Every structure is written in structure tokens, then in C-alpha cells.
Amino acid sequence: MDLQIKGKKAIMAGGSAGMGRATAERLAEAGADLVITARREERLVKAAEEMSAKYGVSVTPVVADSSKEEGRQALFEACPDPDILAITIKPPAPNGDFLKLTPEDWRNSVDTALIGPIEIMRNYIPVMKDKGWGRIVNIATFSAKNPMLWRLMSGPARSALINYTASVSREVAQYGITINNILPGMFQTEGAEELIEVYAEAFNLPADQDAVLTHFLENNKIPAGFIADADDMAPMAALLCSPLSRFIVGQNIVIDGGQHHSLF
Ligand SMILES: NC(=O)c1ccc[n+]([C@@H]2O[C@H](COP(=O)([O-])OP(=O)(O)OC[C@H]3O[C@@H](n4cnc5c(N)ncnc54)[C@H](OP(=O)(O)O)[C@@H]3O)[C@@H](O)[C@H]2O)c1
User: Fold this and answer.
1) Which of 110, 170, 181, 205 has its CA 20 to 30 A from that of 54?
2) How many C-beta neighbours within 10 Å does residue 69 have?
């Protein structure tokens, strides 16, 4: 399928690893020129070089923390006029005892997982409105719709994010701009691997990836029967960045192998 985005300018904020990288790969493969961001420079630059060489498109790395105003400004200066904006951001790690969460923990979660994406969108919606076209996709989390006691630093802020986009997407659709969210379930990514020790401690397991994955599979009935990798969601993200998705507005697409039962 031709995504019809050849030559378009795309930002993948959080594009050096995991689902952001996989999404960037699909956009580059379809011929979009990319700006990708991350906090860690080495992996970011390597990702940009690899994708540029592989797909023959321009991929510009910008070191920028999306949770901070300076980072969002650095991104805006590097790419003031994208056609496509995809955003992912790593929230604070899974929490232990909820009674020990402090106001500072909550502020950190909100700065990262809510204000970061909102402010990036706010920077670009006027530009897309002037162009009369734009695609925005947030890669958030299934815990936005399916609360989990150990994901309080991610789920509540993302529930607020999808509430915000539900309203804003309906306002901006008249200008040819669509905003949609992908809510991933359990994915084996670089980011998940970095949390193996946290998960192991939380669930009293050996700090070993196989042990943690086996625990997750045994304790979370995933009808599909496996934990996904980033390529299992990237095609959907790429479709939502395409002109082909012009009638998909304000949706929250859960990609979780069927783990959660919900009509909506
Ligand atoms: N993996 C899962 O099982 C799972 C489950 C549910 C939801 N999710 C959500 O899905 C999203 C992607 O997860 P993932 O597992 O693909 O993560 P990942 O492998 O850690 O990749 C995240 C990417 O975003 C960048 N990034 C993170 N925080 C950033 C920030 N503040 N500013 C700029 N760049 C940032 C990372 O690079 P740097 O670290 O160098 O900045 C990396 O390029 C996250 O929002 C996560 O909460 C994941």
C-alpha cells in the first residue's frame, strides 16, 4: 500500500528506539523526510544514519527532551513546519507503594507524559492549520484506558492526554488535521528491557529478561499469546500519518493482543 507521504516532512519525537524508532522506519520507508529526537545522543545519531542510508531519505537527529521547554524549542527550531508529527515519551518508571507517591512524583509524571506531548502539539497545530493539512499521532499506553496500580506514573497522565486529544482533534479536523492515539499493550522494546530490574524487584523475580517475560505472559492473559515487538504497532502508526486516514479522527487505538476487554 502506498502511504502517499513521499517527500512529506515528519517528526518522530522519541525516534531512536522502541516503537518510536519502528514508526520512524515505516515513515522513512514510505519516503518521508524525518526529524527524530531523543535525549541520548549516541543512539539517536546512529538511528538517523542507519535509516537515512537504508531508505535514502533525510533523517535529522535533534537531541531534545520533550518533557522540557528547552527541548521542545530545540525541536521547533530544527523543524518549524512538519506535515506529520508523531510523539512518544518515556514516563517515570513503574511505581511501588502508591501511598509513597509524592506531589513531586506526580508533577514529574504530568510534565513528561501530559504536558510534553500537549506542548509539542500546541507548537505545531497553528502551522498545520495554515497548511490546511497535518497528521498527529501520540504513542501513549493502554493503561490510559485500563488502569493499573503499578503504572500510576504513566496511566493517569495519559488518560488526561487522550481526554485532551478527544476534544482538540474534533476542533482541528476542519483544517485537515487529524489527531489520534495509539495505546500499546506489552511490547518487548529497548525501553522495556531497561526496566527489567524494576519489574523483577516489583514481582519478586530474578533480574532476568526471560523470567520477567514468562511472568508477564503467565499472569496477563494475552489472547494473541505473545508479547509484541515494535513492528507490531508501527504499521498502524504509519497509516495514521497518511492521507489515507483522513476520516479517522480522535481515536484511541489499543494494540495489546486482545489483553483488555472493552467495547470502546
Ligand atoms: N514497551 C511496553 O511494553 C509499553 C507498554 C505500554 C506503553 N508503552 C509506551 O509506549 C511508548 C514507547 O515505549 P517503548 O517501549 O517503545 O520505549 P523505548 O524503547 O524506551 O523508546 C522510547 C524512545 O523515546 C525516546 N524518549 C523517551 N523519553 C523522551 C523524552 N522525554 N524526550 C525525548 N525523547 C524521549 C527514547 O530515547 P531516549 O531514552 O534517549 O530519550 C527512545 O527513542 C512509551 O510512551 C511507553 O510508555 C510501552
Assistant:
1) 181
2) 12
